[in-house]
Amino acid sequence: MKNLVLQLSIVLLTTASIPSVALAQSDAVILTIDGKIDGGVPLDFTASQLEAIGSAQIATATPWHDGTPVFEGVPMAMLLAHVGADGEEADVLALNNYRTTIPLEDFSAYPVLLALKQDGEYMSVRNKGPLFIIYPFDDFDELQTDLYHARSAWQVRSITIK
Amino acid sequence: MKRHAWFPQFAIVVIVVLGIATVLHARVVQDTADAVRDSMRFDVSWIGAHGRIEAAQLEAYLARYAAMGRQADADRAELFYQILLGRLDSWNVGGYKEFLESSPESQQAYEELQRLLVSIEPAMTDLQQASSISTVLDTLEPVGAMIEKIGAEATISAVTKAAAIRQTLTEKQAIQHYLVVAALLSAGIMLIVSAFQNRNLRRAHAEVRRAADTFAYLAHHDPLTGLPNRTAFPDADQPATRDERLTAVVVIDLDGFKLINDTWGHMFGDKLLIAAARRLEDVVSTGSGHVVARLGGDEFAALLHVRDQSKAETMAQRMLEALKRPFDIEGSSVTISATAGIATTANAIQNARELLADADLAQSEAKAHRKGSVAIYDEALRETVERRLKLENDLRCAVGRDEITPHYQIQVDIGTGAVVGVEALARWHHPQLGPISPAEFIPIAEASGQIVDIGKYMIACACRDALRLPPDVQVAVNLSVIQIMQGEVMEATADALMAAGLPPERLKLEVTESVMMADAKQPIAVLSELRYLGVSLALDDFGTGYSSLSYLTKFHWDEIKIDRAFLQNLDTDSVGLSVIEAVLVLARKTGAKVVVEGVETQEQMELLRGTGCDIGQGYFLGKPAPIDLVCAQIREINPSRPARLHHMAQKNRHDRSSR
C-alpha cells in the first residue's frame, strides 16, 4: 500500500516536473550512485534527471542558514527506490571530500530531501550546492543533534549504497 | 490517642517534601536535557577544521595547475575556491557566527580572510596567466595560518563551552542525586513511621478489644461471685439433649440473709454469698448446659435441662441441702437455709426471662408460706398471685369508693344473755369479684401498708355507728400490728372519737398477740397511750401462735379473746375446755374479762356457761351484719333497754360536742 502511494506520487511528480528539465543549469552530471543498486552499475544523474524522479519541499532552519529557507529537491526515499537501492546504509561523499554514512532507515523514518534548490534557486557550490541532504529539523526535535547535523552533507557528489 | 496526634502533620510534611523533591527533580532533569542539547549543538571547531583542509586543497590544485597546466586542476581549484567561499559564508551564520562575535580577534581574522579570498576572485577567473596564479598563491599564503588561528580559537571556545556544559551536567546530576536520596529517605522514614504507627494502631486495637471483652464480661457477670448475672441469664440457654426435653429455671433465695449481713457485717455476708455460689455451682455443674447465675442480693437462679419436672425438683432439693450444710467463714460456722421456686417448660424457645419470672413467683409464694421449701410454679399459683396483685391494686381505691364497709357481730354476756358489745369487721365488696373475705384482703393490706388507711377508716366508722347502739354496748375494732408500729393510731383514734363525740370507754381496740412477739417496748408504749385516752384494749386470738403467758402479764388487758380453735372439738375433747378454764383463772387474776370466739352451737354455749366465761361471740349468737340489722338485733335481744332513747341522747351529746 505504502509502495503504491509512493509510486503513484512519483508518477505525478514526474509529470509535473517535465518543464523544469529545460530550466536546468546544464546537463552536467552532478550525482553518481553506486554500490548495492539495481544492475550493480554506477548510475550518473544530471539535475534534470534528479528532478524527473520526484520533488518535494522542506521548510526548516539549519545551523548553517539564517532564517527558515525552503528547500526543494528529490526525496531520498524516492531516489533510492528509483535506483533500487538494497543495502543498510548510504556512504555520502561531498565535493570537499567530506564523507558521512547515513542509515537507510533515516529515509523511511523522515522525509529527507536531496535538495537542489533553496528558496526557489538552484544552489551553487558556494551556496553548498549543487546537492544538499536536508533533514526536516524543525518538524522533528530529535533531529536537532550533531548526529543528524553531520549526516546532513552539503556539496554532495556521490552516494554509495552498502 | 494523643501520642499519635503528630502523625498526620508528619505525613503531610513528608508528602510536601516528596512533592517538592519531585518538582525540583523534574526541573533539574529539564535543565540537564537542555545542557545535553547544548552539548550536541553543531561543533564549531569541526567546521573550522574543514575550512583549513579546503584551503589546502585550493592551494594544492593551484600549484598542480601551475606546474602541469592541466585544465582539470584549474577546474578543481575553481571548485575549491567556491567551496572555500561557501565555507566562509557558513561561518557567518548560526553557532559559528556567535563564536566569532564573542571573539574580536577571530572576527578580525575572519574579516581579513574574507577580504583576501574576495581579492583573488579576479585572478581566479584568469588562471591562464601565470601572474594570476602566483598572485593567488601569494595571497593564499597566510590563509592557512589564519584559518588555523580561528580554528584554534574555536576549539578553545568549544572545549570551554563543553567543559561548562559538563560542569552543569555534573551539578545537575549531583542535585538529582541529592533529590532522589532525599525522596528515598523521606519515603523510608515514612515507611518506618507508618510501620510504628501500624503497630501502635494494632496495639490500640487490641487494647480496645480487651477493654470491650472486659466490659462485656462485667456486663454479664456478677463481680462478687463471678457467676453470670441477671442480664446474662437469658443468654445462657444451651441446646438440650434429646432426653432432657424440659428447660427448668430454679430461683433460690437465702432465708434470713439480711439478718446475717446486719449481724456479721457486709464483708462476712459477701463471703457467705461467694461460698453459697460455689456450692450451687458444684451441684448444678454436674449436668451439661446447666448455668448458675446470681440475680442480685441473696437471690440465685439455675437454668437446667432435665428429663422431667421431678428431676428439676430433685435438683432444687439438692441445692437447698447443699446450702444447709454449715459454712465455715472467718473461723465461724454459719448455717443458712434457702427457699426455691421452680418453673419448667418443654418449649425450647420460651423466653428464659418469663421462666425466670415464673420461678421467682413460685419462690416468693414458698417464702411467704413455707420457708426452706421448694415450690413449683403452676397455673393455679399464677392465678392466686394475679388475684392477689389485682386485690392489692384495687385496694388502693376501695376505701375511697365505699367498697369497704364495717359489719358488726354481737358479743353476748354468757350469764345474762344480754348484748354487751359488737365487733366491727371490715367487709369488702369488690365490684367485679364480689365479697372478699377479710382473711384474704387483710394480709394483702398489711403487706402493702393499706391497712393503716383501712384501720383508720374502720375506727371512724365504728365511732360513728356506736352512737346508734345502746350506751352499754361497746364497739370493738381490730388493730393491726402495722398500725401500732406506724405510731399514728393514737391520733387516728382520738380524732375519730372527737369527730363522732363518742365516749372513749365505749371503744375497744383488739390487738393480736403477734404485737407482743418481737420487741414489745413500742407496742406497749402505744397501747399505754391508748389506755390513757380511755379506750379498752383486748388481746385477740389468744392461744394461737406462740401464746406466751407473759403477754398476759406485760400489759393490763381489759379483755382476753380466746381463739375459736379451742371451741372446735369442745364436746368430745375436754382439753380445749381445760385451756379455757386455765386462761380464765389467769384472766381473773389480772382483772380481764374473757371472750370466747366461734360459738356456733347451743352445747358450746352451755359448756362455756359452765366454765364461767364472761362473753361469747359466734354464729350461734349472731352473724356479722350491717349496722341497721345489728341495731334491730340488739333491740330484739335487749328489749328492756330503749336503744332509740339512748341513741337520741348520744346524738344530742354529739351535737353539743361538735359545737
Can you count the beta strands of chain A?
10
CATH C-level class of the largest domain in chain B is Alpha Beta
Shape of chain A: globular
Q: Level of helix content of chain A?
A: 25-40%
List the secondary-structure elements of chain A in sequence, H or E: HHEEHEEHEEHEEEHE
Distance linking N and C termini of chain A: 26 Å
Rg for CA atoms of chain B: 63 Å
* Count of helix runs of chain B: 23
* Strand order within the widest beta sheet of chain B: 8-9-11-12-13-14-15-16
Give the neighbour order of strands across the main sheet of chain A. 2-1-10-5-6
Unreliable stretches of chain A (pLDDT < 50, length at least 5) are 1-25
Number of individual domains of chain A:
1
What kind of assembly state do the chains in view correspond to?
heterodimer
**DSSP helix fraction of chain B:** 55-70%
Q: What are the low-pLDDT stretches of chain B, counting only 5+ consecutive residues below 50? A: 641-659
Q: What do the pLDDT scores of chain A average to?
A: 81
Terminus-to-terminus distance of chain B: 82 Å
What would you note in describing this structure?
The complex is a heterodimer of chains A (162) and B (659). With 162 residues, chain A is of the alpha+beta class. Chain A has a single domain, classed as Alpha-Beta Complex (Sulfite Oxidase, Chain A, domain 2). In chain A, 29% of the residues lie in helices and 30% in strands. Chain A has 6 helices and 10 strands. Mean pLDDT of chain A is 81; it is low at 1-25. Chain B has helices at 6-39, 44-68, 71-90, 94-102, 104-119, 121-124, 130-140, 143-220, 257-264, 266-284, 309-324, 352-369, 379-398, 438-448, 451-466, 481-486, 489-500, 521-533, 550-554, 574-590, 602-611, 627-637, 643-657; strands at 246-255, 291-296, 299-306, 327-329, 332-334, 337-345, 374-376, 404-413, 419-430, 434-436, 474-479, 507-512, 536-542, 559-562, 593-596, 615-616. Chain B has 3 domains: 1-220; 233-377, 2-Layer Sandwich (Alpha-Beta Plaits); 396-657, EAL domain (TIM Barrel, Alpha-Beta Barrel), CATH 3.20.20. Chain B has 659 residues and is an alpha/beta fold. Classes of the chains: A alpha+beta (162), B alpha/beta (659). At the A-B interface, helix 6 of A face helix 2 and helix 3 of B.
